[in-house]
Structure formats: structure tokens, C-alpha cells
Amino acid sequence: MAAVKPKVLVLGGCGFIGRYVVCELVEKQVCSSICVVDKVPPQIAWLNERQSKVFADESITFRSANLINAASCASAFGEEEWDWVINAAGETKTGQLQKLMWEFKIEKILAINLLTSIDPS
């Protein structure tokens, strides 16, 4: 009997790291389905040819959400249950070390929003 492949939610799936995670999951046929959540849709995310092909796969769905916003974050998970949740969300800002503390604050807010969305109690 074949093992059931997991359903995966990839937060920040159109970002610099997330897009490569999605490519690996699809190309290695690890998952039954993948839901990519990002504030930037794949159509305008500057995907390369490989990534564009992968994101066109029928196993992938996309949800638009800005995970810094609590209400938007809650909608990212939807009503479905996920076997895996991969958090690749974050901002890519090279050469801006002076904003490092601000980025830590944003990442903390993002983590709080994610955890609250999973279990509001």
C-alpha cells in the first residue's frame, strides 16, 4: 500500500527562498498538493522559466495574504488541514543593515500572527 503524500502550505512561497522550496517539492513529487501563500502572486514574482513551469503545475494553488496583517494571516490557512507548513516568509533587503532591528520586529509580529491563526486560544 502506497503512503499518502502530505498536503503542504508554503508561506512566502513566491519569495526568494520559498520559490525554490516549491520547485523541489513539485519536482521530487513529495506532496499531494501545495498551497502557496504570498503577498505577491506568481504572475508578477519574477519567476524564472523553471519556476514558472513548476508554478503552473496542477498540484499548486495560490492564496494572496500579507502575513504581517493578522486578519490576512488567518485567511492564509483557510479551512483546510495541512500536514506540513513551511515558513519561508520574510523580506529580502540586501545592504540595509541599519534596518535590522525593524526587521526583527516585523518577523516577531509575523510569528505571533501565524501562531494565533493556528490556535487562537
TrEMBL record:
Pfam families per record: Epimerase
Residue intervals passing through the bilayer: none
Matching InterPro entries: Epimerase_deHydtase (IPR001509), NAD(P)-bd_dom_sf (IPR036291)
Domain NAD-dependent epimerase/dehydratase: 8-95
Alphabetized Gene3D superfamilies for the sequence: NAD(P)-binding Rossmann-like Domain
Name the UniProt record assigns to this protein: NAD-dependent epimerase/dehydratase domain-containing protein
